[in-house]
Design goal:
heterodimer; A: Rossmann fold; Rossmann fold; 7-stranded mixed sheet; 21% strand; B: Rossmann fold; two-stranded antiparallel ribbon; 12% strand
Chain lengths: 315, 272
């Protein structure tokens, strides 16, 4: 996703000199081509995320389309009030980019686990929040946020995620992508969890559970229409995210469901507890520890579906 | 409208008068912080800044940022005197439904950016100055910060950055009134030697009396102080300047002049 993002941004920036990329001293072996080809559209601000974010807002208010780039929690939580006051309050055209969302830097330790970012960014007034699922979505998302003025948070993975989608998907900010049709069960995924959710859906179908899969790449504005349409067709609905179960995709979907006034499917959020990890490992290891591997998702779905059969719920 | 057709001295006096009345009516804090910058603002808006109240978004205007957003009464006052909005609007300061909130907001015509949390204005101003420098645009960026604000780490991040990029179109004005919100600066976190600190970071620094109008004007008209270096003016000021019973008193970071004290303050300004 990181590569898809920077390549796309590079292409766009060559055509539009308003695009500026700021980094907080990160991007080794990733950003160099951009930096060398477009020096007037690039600034390494140094290890100073507050200044990077405030400067980005000031540059955006002077006519630029500004991307801030760093890893993990550095571009978001480290400088949160600058995002709120400098970017969002001024409706500045700044795109905050996090590389390494979730457990991408799993073994690096809890400081590097970006697991509350989506919820926190979602709360900020005027902020669009996007977590692409694969390099194709990342490419489309990068183009889309350049074309949509105003604050945006783009949460990416690292490099090397498998391509899931065909290149020509219909990507629209705020519109979920229906990746797989199903019957009675819906799995809603955000960010890079999509690959595991799809693998889980394949495994579940072997057991006679046919799950619809939605890629909810945009958390805000949320596609409540797609959520409710899926809820009407489902007796069980799951959200799957590499993020705290507080405030992220699961919370957002629960809000829509709870206020819908409709008969609801049984609903479960798969995500992370509100706790720091004292034992760490690879991203795969961390996901597995928290029941977010393919197998973990399969088990959670089966456990719930076996209790709440559609006949019991809808009679 | 535009630059007020009065002397800078008279403008400073009017700013103080507006601040006293606004703060009194609103029973608001921060009168001392507004009075300490009245002379600096008067000179800036009288002789220094390039602006046009009829076109607040004129792209080549000089940018003025009041990073110490709690001193906004003085900024609202000078903008009203310049004709950005009717002076009668000052009566709404801090009132229900008012645009004139207690910390500077860009919702008000003529206010470049919203502030109120310290340590933000200079980061944004540095971004604006970098764009002007790279795109060879003529505008300058003036950013007024408080001494207490120099406690914020995010003041020193742009202080490091601006010299690296030779932003001589950027001007920091430190309102060094020596009193921060809960005590004297030298007793809370001593900043001295403050000018040396900015100098050590690579800024061209002038230390001036922030109430001597001629000195202020002379200093501003000699910008940039040194080609290729950002500019810092350490303005020695007096918190509550102009109202003798408020001067150098921490209480007037919080209290509002009411009743007899209001009359005393207005009478003192009348005599000046």
């Amino acid at each position: 996703m990181r590569t898809a993002f920077i390549q796309t941004l590079f292409e766009l920036a060559k055509e539009d000199e308003r695009i500026v990329l700021l980094t907080g001293d990160l991007g080794f072996s990733v950003i160099e081509p951009f930096m060398q080809a477009l020096p007037k559209q690039f600034v390494n601000v140094g290890v100073a995320e507050q200044n990077m974010t405030g400067m980005a807002a000031g540059m955006a208010l002077s006519g630029k389309i500004v991307f801030t780039y760093s890893i993990g929690n550095f571009p978001t939580l480290r400088c949160l009030e600058h995002i709120r006051n400098d970017i969002c309050y001024h409706n500045a055209n700044v795109k905050v980019v996090c590389v390494g969302g979730g457990f991408c830097y799993g073994a690096a330790g809890a400081t590097h686990h970006a697991t509350e970012d989506l919820g926190i960014m979602r709360m900020l007034p005027g902020m669009t929040v996007i977590a692409p699922a694969d390099p194709v979505e990342a490419r489309h998302a990068t183009r889309a946020v350049v074309n949509q003025p105003g604050p945006c948070y783009l949460r990416l993975g690292k490099a090397g995620e498998p391509v899931i989608h065909k290149p020509d998907i219909n990507f629209q900010i705020g519109k979920a992508i229906r990746v797989r049709e199903g019957d009675g069960v819906t799995l809603i995924s955000t960010g890079g969890m999509l690959r595991f959710v799809l693998e889980a859906a394949d495994r579940l179908s072997e057991s006679g559970i046919h799950a619809r899969v939605l890629s909810m790449h945009t958390l805000k504005p949320l596609d409540s229409e797609s959520i409710l349409a899926a809820a009407r067709d489902s007796f069980a609905m799951f959200t799957v995210e590499e993020h705290s179960i507080i405030g992220g995709l699961g919370s957002a979907v629960a809000e829509v469901l709870a206020e819908s006034g409709e008969t609801l499917p049984v609903f479960k959020r798969l995500g992370l507890p509100s706790a720091f990890s004292s034992r760490v490992g690879t991203q795969q290891y961390m996901l597995q520890q928290h029941g977010l591997s393919t197998e973990g998702i399969v088990n959670s779905v089966k456990a719930l579906v076996s209790v709440f059969h559609p006949a019991d719920l809808r009679g | 409208m535009g630059k007020p057709n009065i002397t800078a001295e008279e403008l400073a006096n009017r700013i103080r008068r507006h601040c006293i009345i606004m703060t009194s009516r609103a029973n608001a804090s921060h009168i001392g912080s507004s009075l300490s910058i009245a002379d600096l603002l008067a000179v800036l808006y009288h002789n220094v800044l390039r602006f046009d109240p009829d076109r607040p978004d004129w792209s080549e205007r000089d940018r003025f940022i009041l990073s110490k957003g709690h001193g906004c009464a003085a900024l609202y006052a000078v903008l009203a005197e310049c004709g950005y909005f009717p002076k009668s609007m000052l009566e709404t300061y801090y009132q229900d439904g008012s645009l004139l909130m207690g910390h500077a907001t860009h919702y008000v015509p003529g206010i470049e950016i919203s502030t109120g949390s310290l340590g933000h204005g200079l980061t944004m101003g540095t971004g604006m100055a970098l764009v002007a420098k790279r795109d060879e645009r003529p505008y300058r960026v003036f950013c007024m910060i408080s001494d207490g604000e120099c406690d914020e780490g995010s003041t020193w991040e742009p202080a490091l950055f601006a010299p690296q990029h030779k932003l001589d179109n950027l001007v920091v004005i430190v309102d060094y009134n020596k009193i921060q919100s809960f005590g004297r600066v030298d007793e809370v976190v001593d900043l001295s030697p403050l000018a040396d600190k900015w100098r050590a970071f690579g800024w061209a620094v002038r230390e001036i009396d922030g109430h001597d109008l001629k000195t202020i004007e002379r200093t501003f008209t000699s910008l940039p102080f040194s080609a290729g270096q950002p500019n810092c003016i350490v303005a020695h000021t007096v918190k509550g300047k102009g109202i003798s019973y408020m001067e150098n008193a921490l209480a007037w970071h919080y209290r509002a002049p009411r009743g007899e004290l209001l009359e005393l303050a207005l009478a003192e300004l009348e005599r000046q």
